[in-house]
Amino acid sequence: MCKKKYFSNQSLKDLNTFAIDVTAKKVIFVKTIVSLINISKICKLSNIPYIILGEGSNILFLENYAGIVIINRIRGIKIIEKKNTWLLHVFSGEKWHNLVKLTLNLGIFGLENLALIPGCIGSAAIQNIGAYGLEFKDICQYVDVLCLKNNITTRINKKFCKFSYRNSIFKNQYNHEHAVIAVGIKLSKKWRPIIFSTLKKYIKQKNITPYSMFNIVCKIRKKKIPDPKKTGNAGSFFKNPIITKEKAQKLLKLYHVPNYPEINGLIKISAGWLIEHYKFKNLQVGDAGIHKKQKLVLINKKNATPQEIIKLAKIIHICILKKFNVFLEPEIDFIGSIGKVKSSDIFKLKNN
Questions:
Q1: Which pLDDT band, with edges at 50, 70 and 90, does 352 fall under?
Q2: Where is the FAD-binding PCMH-type domain (predicted)?
Q3: Domains of the chain
């Protein structure tokens, strides 16, 4: 078993990118699967709630956590070279951006569009992270999940992961008493750039390389999204709404909203555009505000409370619904005193 670190009533401010100053009864860093199993067993026997986090990059603590926060630091990367592909087996405690940089340095290409996305590998699978025309599901082969009831690890093939926009089976069926342990990633040796519409103005097709794509994506993200080490945030607070074609046509007759067709005939529209064009004037609740360069990002300017961030989010939600008749659904997870809380229970609003 690894050497564990225990803290009593420690602040979680440095363990969540929103920098919310709440506490947990204990924080335990784990580096092995055995440690994770043992700690979860102790929690269950003692009837103590626990939650497993990586970088704390897509969450908002609503209050002090009444149990144990387990920080996943189970790391390791195995790479197998095949004739036409690279196969990666990556443990869930690895940082996502570190993997992107490592593969690029090794001459293994295909992850560049997902550069600078915060969080760990486990979160990448759970959230089905995505950016600039590429999602985790596009490069995933499988996900290994540990059941903490029987300590059995199951390998789930990509086709059974139920990946969708910022969603997966791991946010639902495998949410409670399960932990993502590792993922399998498959990358083709024949690199083809994915030039999403918002990247076109930065790219000269003839000169594009994996390295230049990586640099372009990093430059854009640094410009648009604040560094959580300097300004607390959880990235995009809201998802881009996916609406029916009929509803999109009505909206597009009135507004020039950036929109993207989905495979199932639905239309994805830009939530950032909606917030920007509502033209909120210096909207701020306490220390909670909207990032000037990317309206989807809510920020903790200094010492924002969870209540201030929720109040700000509710104001945005209601205003967008009234003006555009579009329902903004939070992308982040909310964590209460004993575990996750459904966003619908917080906002008390239904998508009609």
A1: very low
A2: 20-190
A3: 6-72 (3.30.43.10), 77-221 (3.30.465.10), 228-347 (3.90.78.10)
